[in-house]
Design a protein that fits this description.
Four copies of one chain form a homotetramer. Chain A folds into two domains: about 55 residues, Arc Repressor Mutant, subunit A (Orthogonal Bundle), CATH 1.10.10.60; about 130 residues, Tetracycline Repressor, domain 2. Chain A is built from nine helices and no strands. Chain A binds a DNA duplex through helix 1 and helix 3.
Chain lengths: ~200, ~200, ~200, ~200
DNA sequence: GATGAATGAGCATTCATTCAT
DNA sequence: AATGAATGAATGCTCATTCAT
């Protein structure tokens, strides 16, 4: 007697998640090329062949993770769009970004490496470009308008976040994230005293 | 008539340089794993076997490039140590860093990727750590003292530079390096007005 | 209410037939090795696992088809054994063979390839040998006796039929089967004028 | 000191020949799919990797053999074009074909199987087609004219030769090639008595 | 020093087969 | 009887490295 469709669906979902979780960790920590399908299967606790029931290829696993991460980032930002005050919104987003770096360092790490590795993501280049274009638009929105000052400010904040991510990945916990967050918020989210 | 020793030395040096130049370009643009010794030899215009007269392994080529880059960075900074005024020194170093990013993007790219890819540089981790420790010390020196404020400021500047590097690598020429440089210098290298 | 035994039997028979039909088509057109159990199941409209309820292995499906084809051939010939006149019998068999080639090209194709591919049918070699021995005996019977002339003639006819099969498989409809049939019948089924 | 180019060329030629010889035997006797690159390397007495110095892929080895065989066949036929008398030319070609079947059964076998196996030679289909088109033209030339009778006769001879090949492959030495050859020559290469 | 033929461990991927339900 | 998730041995192919010349 066959399993019911829902049972199959459950099994599938579980295996897929195991693969993605193992892949995220290995790709982020060892690198995409240095991760063999064998080691991936072992880490996921399944057989090598099963991976190909869920993903067409090694690369498609990477892309799936990439897409997940993108969606997660987008959701995070979009969730803050209801905050109307620009300064408060900026602050909220900065804080959420810090939180994400701390709680999901592998995601952030993987995204950063992928962005720099042209070979691996040749055909997903568009994703990358779109993603960063979004980042651009988003940044502009945060700081206020599309004026020159707004653009530069948003690029500064963006570069800061990227740089902090990089350093956090390298230094780990000893890197003083909290202090840096406070400083950034102090600089970029404090109302300017109006000139009298 | 046999060649004089110096001539041999010259030849050696030339081949070595050709290999390193080819490797830098390929590693930075295609990635370390995606670069085969075969393609490296072809790019350098020499035979596959000859590479192993100059380098023990593929990885040792990477390390050699890494060391070169490190030395270059160190030299650049050390060259500014004669500037006594802290603000001017900070400004000079920031400008040199921007210059390096613009003129040698492959070096910077390669270093960044390597810093994030533990797999490739497993045994050179110490290099990385040392390098960044130096960056740390250097930063502190720049801003003045080892006080908390100094540390945070130097980390901010460091993160900014790293982030700008990353974005420049990704966006290329459309990324407004000059404007960002001006803004950074304006923020971090302008004398504070003393309180009355 | 439980099904009656015959109903079960019917179901079994239906699934088995579906598998064999799908296998015949795929094996003949794509080749045995290039046909996966997956694609076979899909074509048959059943699940992969079910196939193993009816057949022990992929190879046993092939053998089953082979046996079917053999039986079909044998039946065809045996059905003509009632024709007493040798020339008419020869003619009838030749015509039936042509008919079979035209109507069941997959069978013929598969048999031919299998006969040439020792790898696939290693253990069924005996089948092959028996089959062709039968062909031999049969041929001899057709033409009359076991005399030398009879043997050579039957081998000639056999080779002709095999060769025509091969060419028909390759050229398809443009191959002039009808004309060849007529010519063969003219040559081999026309009463020799007795020497006066 | 490097080897001289001719030395390299020699080595290359030798290895290439070893691979082709081993491949011909294995492909013909075990079948293309059933022959692994591993076993091929072992039979050739070289390493697996070396094969890919000479051939792009497993399939390209097959194609190389195919081309060789085609050229060999063409050369054989073309060599007889100087014989002006049609009957003698026909006889010469028939005898050469028998000789080829006997002396190079692997070639003939491989060609036959490949002609029947659509999967393997998908992109070389044109070769096959051309080859058989040539066979067609050639046949017509042999028998005399492009008249209907000429075409049918040439197709008959062609089918006979193919069929005999097939049976020879299957039965081996017990198959009476010599007698069949004589019979064919008797039938097709004897001057018709003019009607009185 | 210089060459490129040769090696073989390692990799991604396929697929016949098993099995819990 | 029927399903399809799961397994793992086997395969084609790559590539860093060695070595005879």
């Amino acid at each position: 007697m066959p399993r019911r469709p829902e049972q199959f669906e459950e099994l599938r979902e579980k295996s897929r998640e195991k693969i993605l979780a193992a892949a995220l960790e290995l790709f982020a920590n060892k690198g995409y090329d240095a991760t063999s399908i064998d080691s991936l299967a072992k880490k996921a606790g399944i057989s090598k062949g099963l991976i190909y029931n869920y993903f067409e290829s090694k690369k498609s696993i990477l892309i799936a993770i990439f897409d997940d991460a993108m969606k997660m980032g987008e959701d995070m930002i979009m969730g803050q769009m209801s905050v109307k005050d620009p300064l408060l919104r900026k602050k909220a987003i900065i804080e959420l970004t810090f939180a994400m770096i701390k709680e999901r360092p592998e995601y952030v790490k993987l995204l950063t490496v992928m962005a720099l590795q042209p070979g691996v993501m040749a055909e997903t280049k568009e994703f990358t470009k779109n993603a960063y274009k979004k980042t651009g638009e988003w940044s502009k929105v945060i700081t206020g308008k599309g004026k020159k000052d707004g653009l530069i400010e948003s690029l500064m904040i963006g570069a800061l976040m990227d740089g902090i991510t990089l350093n956090f990945i390298m230094y780990g916990k000893q890197y003083p994230m909290e202090e840096l967050k406070k400083e950034i918020i102090r600089i970029y989210c404090t109302p300017k005293k109006s000139k009298k």
